[in-house]
Design a protein that fits this description.
Number of helices of chain A: 19
Number of strands of chain A: 12
Structural class of chain A: alpha/beta
CATH class of the largest domain in chain A: Alpha Beta
Radius of gyration of chain A: 21 Å
Largest interface: A-B, 62 and 62 residues
Strand content of chain A: 5-15%
CATH architecture of the largest domain in chain A: Alpha-Beta Barrel
CATH topology of the largest domain in chain A: TIM Barrel
Distance between the termini of chain A: 42 Å
Number of domains of chain A: 2
Shape of chain A: globular
CATH superfamily of the largest domain in chain A: Enolase-like C-terminal domain
Oligomer: homodimer
C-alpha cells in the first residue's frame, strides 16, 4: 500500500510568440505553456504521475491555481484504491459540489481536474509497465464502461450501448495492437499553414510535408479572405489537385459569414473546415454544416465537455470529432467522447500541437483504433513539429505516421531540465538567469 | 484625468453550510463566498469600483487568482477613457487572445472578467452619482448597442435589431422610472424551499412568504421523488390551489428522467421547472420543454454566456430566462442576454440569492423594465433572505417587492468589517482570531 504525499505544480511557458509559430486568426501570438502537475507517492518504486493543461500564455498561473485547489482531495489518499477504480477517482474530483460551481464541467477548473485524472492514469500505466495506449487497450469492456460518467448522456448513449460498441471491437484487439506496433498511426501536419508565415515558407513547408510522408496538411484561414485564397492556391499548386488540404478558422466567423467564406474557398476542395465559429454554438455548427456541404465541419479542441460533443453529433454539426487531451475532464471524459463518436459513426481526428498535445493524444487515438472504433479509416492525428525536445518520451514520426510509444506511461512527462529552464515564476523574478 | 492604481482582491467566505441554508439536489453544503475585487484610482474623489464573483466555497481562491490575472490589463490605465467606452473596456478583457484559451468565454476566467467589468460599471455609476439601474436607464439606444459584443449572435439578433428594440422602449422611460421609484420591482422567494429544511419549517416559511407579500415561492426538487411529492403537497395545502409555486432541480436529471419526474409533480401545477438538466444541454432543454409542456422550463444561473442563451431561445428550450449577475462576462454580456430575451419574447426572471446576488441583479431587472422589455408582466427577481447585512447598500424589500436602490453604484460593495471578518486566508492562518 502507498499514499499520495505531494501534488507538485509548475507554471511552465515557452516564448513561442517570438517566432510566430502557432499564429492563427484568433491567436496571433501564443506562448505555448503548460500548467504542470506531478503526483508523488511514498512507494518504493519511485514512480510519479505527470500531466498538464496546455494554455497559450497569460492565465497559465490561474490554471496552476486550479491544480493547487485539487491538492486537498489527493494528498493522503491511498494510491492503490484510487488507481484501482479510476471511475470513482474521476468522480471524486468532477462531482465536488463546491468546485462544480466554477464550471460546471468546463473551463479552468474542469481542465485542472482533467490534468489530475491524466496524471493518475500516467502513474497507473507506469506501475503496469505499459504505455498508456496499450494499458487501456487491454482493459475489459466492463471496466472501460465503468470509467464513463453517463450523466447527461443517456439520451444519446447508454452504458449498454457503450458495452455493445466495446464488445464488438473485442475481437481483433491483439491483431490491431500488432498492426499499430508495425505501422504506427497516421498523422497530418499543420506546420505549413500558420498565418504568420510568408508565401515562400508556406510553399517550402508544403513540399516538405509531402516529402515527409504526410497524407494531409492544414491551412489556417479566417483573417483575410483574399489572403486565404492566395495561400490556398499556392498550397494547391505545390500539392496537386487531389492532395487533401484541410482548413481551420479558429472560431473566427459568425454562422452566415462562415458559410459565405467557405463558399469562396470551395473551388480548392478543402478536406474539412475546422472551428468555423464558436465551439459553444451547436445550432450554428449544424447550420454551417448544412450550408457548406459537402465540405465537412470539424471541431473539438475547444469543446468543453462530453455534453457539447453529444449535441454536436445529435444536431449533425460535426462530421469530424477533434478531441483534445487537456481540454476536457481527462482520459475518462475523452473515453465518453470516443464512444459517442463510435455510436454516431463519426471519425475522431484528435487535435494536437501546442506543447505536449501530440505526446498526450496519440495514446487516445491508438486506443480508439484497438478497442473502440476498430479502424484507422479516415482517421489521423494532427502533428506539429514544436517543442518535442522537452519531453522524456517524445513522439516519434516515421513516414508521416506516429510510431506507437513503448515506454511506460502517458508520455506527458517533461524533462526536469526543461521544467527548470522555462519555469515562469523564476523567469519573472530573475530575468537574467 | 485619473489612473487606476490598484486592483485589490479578497477571498471572502461565509460558513453557510453549518445551517443548511442553500441546500439543494446538487449543492448539499454550500459555503456562500465571493471572489471580491476593488478597482482603485488616484482621483481626488476617493471613489472605487466594487464587484465580485459568487462561488459556493472551495475554489474561491482559484476565482481570486483569475481576478489577479486581470491586474496587468487595468493598473496604469486612464479611468476616463475606460469608463467612457465600456464596450471597448469589456473587449479589452474578453478578447485577450491568451486568456481566451482558458474558456473561451466561460468558467473561471470569464466570470473574473465579468467581475472586473462590473466593478468598472460600479465606479462609473458612483462617479455619475446615480444608482446603476438609473444610470443605465438614461443611456441612449446607440450607446447601449455599442456595449454588446455581437460576435456569434447575428444569426439571432443584429445590432439593428437591438437598436429597434431599444428605440421602441425609449418612449415611456421616465414614466417607468417613476413607477419603479413608487412601486419597486416584484420578487419571489426561495427561502421556504431548501431541501435541508424540515416539513414544519417548510410550512412555516410558506406562510411567512405569503404574509410578506411574495407572489410566488420556489421549492427545490430532484433528490428524492417521494420527498418532492410530500413537500409539494405541504406547500400546496399551505398556499392554496392558485398560488404560483415554481420548482428547481439544480441540474439533477437526464432528459427522460426530467420529463418523467416533472410528470409526477404535474398535479401540483408548478409555475416552472428550473434547471432540469445540464445547463450545457440545449437540445436536452428543448426536448424537456416539449415533454413537460405546459410547464415552462426556466434556466440561466449556470448558463455560461450569450451564445448558449441564444441557442436555448432558438431551440425553444427556455421559456423563462434567469440571468445571473456574476456568471457571464459582466453587465455588457447581460445586456446582450436581455436583448436576446426581448427579441424572442421571453420574460427575464433573474437568479439571485447566494451572497450579494440580489443586490447585484436587481439593477439589471429594473433597467430591463425601463429601457429594454418595458414591462414587469410575468417578471420577478428571485429573493433569498441571506447575508444582506454584509453590504453597504443592502436590498430593501417592501410588500414582496425590491425597492429601487437610490445610492450611487451597483450595490455590490461589502462592508469593510465583513470583508475583514470573513477573509478566508486570515481564517485559515489564524482560526482563533
Amino acid at each position: 500500500m502507498s499514499t499520495i504525499v505531494a501534488v507538485d505544480t509548475r507554471d511552465v511557458r515557452f516564448p513561442t510568440s517570438l517566432s510566430l509559430d502557432g499564429s492563427d486568426a484568433m491567436n496571433p501570438d501564443p506562448d505555448y505553456s503548460a500548467a504542470y502537475v506531478t503526483i508523488r507517492t511514498d512507494s518504493a518504486d519511485g514512480l510519479a504521475g505527470h500531466a498538464f493543461v496546455f494554455t497559450i500564455g497569460r492565465g497559465n498561473d490561474v490554471q496552476v491555481a486550479a491544480l493547487d485547489a485539487l491538492r486537498e482531495h489527493l494528498v493522503g489518499r491511498e494510491v492503490e484504491s484510487l488507481l484501482g477504480d479510476m471511475g470513482a477517482a474521476s468522480r471524486l474530483l468532477v462531482h465536488d459540489s463546491q468546485l462544480r460551481w466554477l464550471g460546471p464541467e468546463k473551463g479552468v477548473m474542469h481542465m485542472a481536474i482533467g490534468a489530475a485524472v491524466n496524471a493518475l492514469w500516467d502513474l497507473r500505466a507506469k506501475r503496469a509497465g505499459e504505455p498508456l495506449w496499450l494499458h487501456l487497450s487491454r482493459l475489459s469492456p466492463e471496466e472501460l464502461v465503468s470509467l464513463v460518467d453517463f450523466r447527461y448522456l443517456t439520451d444519446a448513449i447508454t452504458p449498454e450501448d457503450a458495452l455493445a460498441i466495446l464488445r464488438a471491437a473485442e475481437a481483433g484487439r491483439e491483431e490491431r495492437i500488432e498492426r499499430l506496433l508495425a505501422q504506427g498511426y497516421p498523422a497530418y501536419t499543420t506546420t505549413p499553414g500558420w498565418l504568420g508565415y510568408s508565401d515562400e515558407k508556406l510553399a517550402r513547408l508544403c513540399r516538405e510535408a509531402v516529402a515527409a510522408g504526410f497524407p494531409q496538411v492544414k491551412l489556417k484561414v479566417g483573417a483575410d479572405r483574399a489572403d486565404d485564397i492566395r495561400r490556398f492556391r499556392i498550397a494547391r499548386e505545390v500539392l496537386g489537385a487531389d492532395y487533401p488540404i484541410a482548413m481551420d478558422a479558429n472560431q473566427r466567423w459568425g454562422v452566415q459569414e462562415a458559410i459565405d467564406w467557405v463558399g469562396a474557398l470551395a473551388e480548392f476542395h478543402p478536406a474539412w473546415i475546422e472551428e468555423p465559429t464558436s465551439p459553444d454554438d451547436i445550432l450554428g455548427h449544424a447550420a454551417i454544416a448544412r450550408g457548406v456541404s459537402p465540405v465537412r465541419v470539424a471541431t473539438g479542441e475547444h469543446v468543453q465537455n462530453r455534453i457539447v460533443f453529444k449535441q454536436l453529433l445529435q444536431a449533425g454539426g460535426m462530421q469530424v470529432m477533434q478531441i483534445d487531451a487537456t481540454r476536457v475532464g481527462g482520459l475518462n471524459e475523452n473515453l465518453a467522447n470516443l464512444l459517442l463518436a463510435a455510436k454516431f459513426g463519426v471519425p475522431v481526428c484528435p487535435h494536437a500541437g501546442g506543447v505536449g498535445l501530440c505526446e498526450a493524444v496519440q495514446h487516445l487515438a491508438m486506443f480508439d483504433f484497438v478497442a473502440v472504433s476498430g479502424t484507422m479509416e479516415g482517421r489521423m492525428v494532427e502533428y506539429v513539429d514544436h517543442l518535442h525536445e522537452h519531453f522524456v518520451d517524445p513522439v516519434v514520426m516515421r513516414d508521416g505516421r506516429y510510431v506507437a510509444p513503448s515506454a511506460p506511461g502517458g508520455s506527458m512527462e517533461m524533462k526536469a531540465s526543461s521544467l527548470d529552464e522555462y519555469d515562469w515564476s523564476r523567469t519573472r523574478t530573475d530575468p537574467s538567469a
